[in-house]
Amino acid sequence: MIRLAMTTDAETFERVRGPLADRGVQVGHVRAKERSLRVSSGGDGEAATVDGEEFDGFDVGLVYPTRLMEGAVVDERLGVPWVNGRDTVVTSRNKAGVLATLDAAGLPTPKTTLVSNPVDESVVVDAVAEFSYPVVVKPNSATRGVGVAAATDLDSLLGVVDYLNLIHDYRATGDKSFLIQEFLPDARDYRAMVVDGACAGAVRRELDADALAAGRWKHNVHRGATARGVDLDPEARDLAERAADALGIDYLGVDLLETDDRLVINETNARPTVDAATKYEDDFYDRFATLVRRTAEDE
């Protein structure tokens, strides 16, 4: 039995435990944040054992901890390979970097400009000049739709940027960049799951009628949208697989936006939430377990 370490105990952890156990992969939780972790022994030689046996006996990790500072300590304690390691997580978290890589690979993405603070207001004005309103403004490395806003004119755009400037003024803020992106009205929002190079299923994220009537437009599940399993058409499946290949990531959520005349890759997530098995293809967990096992054996 291979032991897989997961640094989340949220939805994905509970959903994957049983199906992976049926395939010879025992899943355990390793707490990586909101705790204390001994970093060095101070000469007593006990740093690696002071936290008990919670780090012992694992063969592989699923995804490197989301907090990279704590992750470095947890990674050292575990001493195992990751399905998605630190470099993979950092790659996917950088929205602008992902879109630049995909664009260079000839894959369709929304028109996007990166702004790196601090800049004069004139830089923002020039950057948005090639867009039509409304535009989307989003932090470059946030997740779950945090901080994403729509600006309907220059004044509202500069107002959003003012708030970002307040955050970026703080010296400890690591990522001081944000994106200006074209807004695709009424786009259908899909999350495709790519496992080991092949699309293993997808969900469509939808807002209910009341939310739409109230003017909401962000389809993040964490903001109240519902994820419904769907069968992607061949073009969308191929696009998701090509995105994972271009980024070199074996386990990846690929967010697609589809309008009546366009299909684009909006973002990727190297820490994708696993939804109910009924929303994926029948061999999803077979592929998942195979990828975990090969990662452990390749070390």
The 3D shape can be described as: globular
Arithmetic mean of pLDDT:
89
What's the number of extended β-strand segments? 13
User: Could you describe the largest sheet, including whether it forms a barrel?
Assistant: 5 strands, antiparallel
Q: Are there runs of 5+ residues with pLDDT below 50, and where?
A: none
Structural class: alpha+beta
Number of helices: 9
In helices, the fraction of residues equals: 25-40%
N-to-C series of helices and strands:
EHEEHEHHEHEEHEEEHEHEEH
Q: What is the CATH fold-level name of the largest domain?
A: D-amino Acid Aminotransferase, Chain A, domain 1
Strand order in the sheet with the most strands: 11-10-9-12-13
Question: What is the CATH class designation of the largest domain?
Answer: Alpha Beta
The number of domains is 3
Report strand %.
15-25%
User: Radius of gyration, Cα only, in angstroms?
Assistant: 21 Å
* Distance from first to last alpha carbon: 16 Å
The CATH architecture name of the largest domain reads 2-Layer Sandwich
CATH superfamily of the largest domain: ATP-grasp fold, B domain
Protein name: RimK domain protein ATP-grasp
GO molecular function: ATP binding; ligase activity, forming carbon-nitrogen bonds; metal ion binding
Domain ATP-grasp: 99-297
Pfam families: RimK (PF08443)
Describe the protein in words:
The protein has 299 residues and is an alpha+beta fold. The chain has three domains: 2-84, Rossmann fold, CATH 3.40.50.20; 111-182, ATP-grasp fold, A domain (Dna Ligase, domain 1), CATH 3.30.1490; 185-281, ATP-grasp fold, B domain (D-amino Acid Aminotransferase, Chain A, domain 1, 2-Layer Sandwich), CATH 3.30.470. It has nine helices and 13 strands. The strands form three sheets. It has a five-stranded antiparallel β-sheet with strand order 11-10-9-12-13. A four-stranded parallel β-sheet has the order 2-1-3-4, sandwiched between helices. Strands 5-8-6-7 form a four-stranded antiparallel β-sheet, with helices on both faces. The chain is globular and about 60 Å long.
